Amino acid sequence: MTSPVIELRDVGRAYDEGPPALSGASLTVRAGEAVAILGPSGSGKSTLLNLIAGLDRPDSGTVTVNGTRVDRLGEAGAARYRRASVGMVFQFFNLLEDLTVADNIVLPSQLAGMGRAAARRRTAELLETLGIDRHANAYPGRLSGGQRQRVAVARALMNRPPLLLADEPTGALDRASGEDVARLLRDLNADGQTVVVVTHDLELAKACTSRTVELVDGHIVTDTAVSR
Amino acid sequence: MRAGAARRRVQTTVIVLAAMMAVTASVLGGGLLVVSSAPFDDAFAEQNGAHLTATVNAAPGAVAASANAAGVTATAGPFPLVTVVPEAGGERTMPFTFAGRDTPDAEVDAISVVDGEWADEPGEVTLAAGEGGTSVPPGATMSFPSLPGSPVLKVVGFARSVSLTADGWVTAAQAAALAPSGTPESHQMLYRFDSAGTAAAMETATAAVAASLPADSLAGSRSWLDVRNAAERATAVYVPFLMAFGVLGLVMSVLIVGNVVAGSVGSGTRRIGVLKAIGFTPGQVVRAYVGQALIPAVAGTVLGVIIGHVLAVPILAETSDAYGTGTLGIPPWIDIAVVGGILALVAVTALAAALRAGRLRTVDALAVGRTPPTGRGQAAARVTARLPLPRAVTLGLARPFARPVRTVAMLAAIVFGAIAVTFAVGLSTSLDAILTARDHDIADVLVRPAPPELGPNGMPDGPPPSLPDDTSAITAAIEAQPGAKAHYVVHNAPAAVAGTTGTTELVAFTGDASWGGYTLLNGDWIGGPGEAVVPTGFMKTTGTAIGDTVTLTVDGERISLRVVGEIFDLKNDGMKVYTDAAGLTAPMKNSLIAVDLEPGTDPAAYAEGLSRALEPLGANAEPFREGSSDMITVLNSLTAALTLLLVAVAGLGVLNGVLLDTRERVRDIGVQKALGMTPGQTIGGVLASVTLIGVIGGVLGVPAGMALHDAVVPAMGDSTGIRLPRVALEVFDTPTAFALGLGGLVIAVAGALLPGLWAARTRTAVALRTE
Fold this sequence. Notes:
The structure holds 2 protein chains of 2 kinds. Chain A is α/β, with parallel strands linked by helices. Helix content of chain A is 36%, strand content 28%. Chain A has helices at residues 45-53, 75-85, 101-112, 116-129, 145-157, 175-190, 202-208; strands at 4-14, 20-30, 34-38, 60-65, 68-69, 86-89, 163-167, 194-199, 211-216, 219-225. In chain A, the strands form 2 sheets. Chain A has a 6-stranded mixed beta sheet, with helices on both faces. Chain B folds into 4 domains: 1-44 and 229-371, no CATH class; 58-216, no CATH class; 375-439 and 628-771, no CATH class; 445-623, no CATH class. The longest helix of chain B has 42 residues, at 282-323. Chain B is elongated and about 105 Å long. The A-B interface holds A 50, 53, 55-56, 75-76, 79-80, 82-84, 88, 90, 94-100, 103, 107-108, 110-112, 139, 141, 155, 159 and B 372-373, 375, 377-378, 381-382, 385, 390-392, 398, 402, 667-668, 670-681, 760-761, 763-765, 768.
């Protein structure tokens, strides 16, 4: 059995005076796994993802990713952690519209201080792998939804993170593009990339992950292996 | 409307400060401009003041005939005129010019008796009060033991002649009796002209009068324009620089208001869509945005009026005292005009920017955030991405190109901030240079008379002390003390100059005084006996030019000196004449010896040693101390306050622009942080976004500030009737200009720091959820 990449222990998070968004959540994700976090709107899926990505801090419990206690990191530490350990894909792509496709992809490596030549090589490799090399100098506004999400995935993989987090990656796509992105995630996982996908789409979960974790009202209610 | 103003605290503060700055400077500048001349003009009109006061050495009949000269509309005189030096305690005091007038009433120069009565009996004198007046107490007597019959005059009252026609008035018979035997017959004639509003008109009229008098009999004359200029001097100096700040503040207000309202409309587009969707008419939307600018602008103008009035109090106090007009204040119409004008300007600017909100289609406004943005700034982003700089910085460098209008507004704020800083630094340096140039006898050590003994009433006993008539023992002591390099002796005597009232001070030097800090404006320094240098004030008052010969009367003795140079000297309104002591026979007091020391000699130690040696000789030595000036202190303080305000407004203008930009792209910032941008990189990126405009703002603002300085400082000199030395005008060297250029960058970075910190602190998860 491979070592755990993500370890959550009794994690709780509440916002203001409302009910807890997450309560007593414990979860372990091992290297090479592809896990889907499922649940209806308001169930705590995005909160869980934000805690793993170091975008938010839990009120209680511990979050350990790749051996790093993410819940103890300050803002600068969390930024460095994300550069090194996490690649993120968002529902609405979140590409920077004033940068070209290539400049979007290379950005995480530039923030991390990677050498120019190495960054250029890695960008070219990702553009080719993800089939978007002919759009390298285009601006995101000119691309289709599916192409944009491919750019977002390439950007997420730029620094070779051990963990890829995807938040509703097909939520803003048509069916064909959604299936394309699902295939991409499955292929990446097949190559050994650990993937955590937050979605309310059971079909996507089945298509690209090997395990589903279901959240209801901030509690993990099921944790099931998926047979493809 | 109120909710909008409260919600946008930064923008509201910026408008309050900008309006306050513009109103403060405008109220002060406009108020002083109007008020400074008002008391003189009122009093001059009331007294039917003399356009020309002439001293004529001719018989009364010949003088009276000049009433028929071309352009003359009214005259008074001829009055017998005499210059006398009363004695007190056995010492001769300052000279007085008395006019012989049996009555204060006249068609020209109707004198107002302000205390006591008019001198209508022999043995009485009424002295001039206020400006040009004396410090002789009422009821005192003035003795003239050296005149035939040793006359004594009793001071029976004080009167004010706005035209400053004499230091005192006696009866015509008394004036004739006071005239020293052997002096030529001298009369005063006062004229009003049909055209006297300009210097050129006065020159023409004076020439006509001179032509109507016997040849060479016009010994002196004084134009009412010079009198008025002197009267306004105390406040007029503030007007040019306050007007400069007023215009800067006004332009800044327009820029800031336009930028804030346009920014509010731009960033609140979706809100505008919602307002329209729920039933707001275009007019209501426009009114709401104009109101958001007008509410803080009203607050700023109220504060500005209050501050303007408070600052005007010390400046106007001097003018108020001169005419006994009571406390002067800025007239209400100035407040109304300034407040109305600035609020109208704010309203028009805000309206122009807010009209876009009214025209915006509801469906388009609601779609903002869901439609892809325009491609502005992409080319710049592509170029800056290639720069060999950290990526966070290059991302920031591209930002100004994405919002060109906002960038221009921020740039303008920085340019005006840089102009203000440059102007203020230049003005302050000029004032320091004036202060230095104003000080004379700048020597390492000054030898003065020992302080006088105090009498039983705590007042100095006897006449003011002076150095001994023979200073050879003192100069020997100076030379005996190791370290002395050079010295000169300063001699003083009160003198009278025909055609002027008050006292002209004759200063004579024994030894070379050219190293003593006398700033030469034109011509040459004194080359030998018979040559003189005079201040600009003297030249203007007496109409003297370089090359002319001036005649002074010292203790009844006439001294003729050829003017070879013009120097910078503000003391005694510039009524001084400097010459070489050699060959002068008139009695003069020895007031000072200036000592220059060899390099490396400690002035304090030298002065201490010299003082011990001089004690038996009734003299005292002290190291030189730099002087100060209340007016320059007020000017420096006002400049500092207004500059600080303007720079604060400029910084807040930048802050407003960067804040709008940061809020607009908060999601982008969230994405960058999610990709691993640290808080430090985030701040660096925001600061980098204003670096370029800060540098450009400095580059544009500094030359403009220098040009403003070069225009305003000479105007300030002109308004006070002084010509400024080159050291006071040429104050910007290359290192100073470069340092000032960085001021634009400092303003930009200071303005962007808070939004940068806000961006760095914003939680990534929250930023990513922000639409």
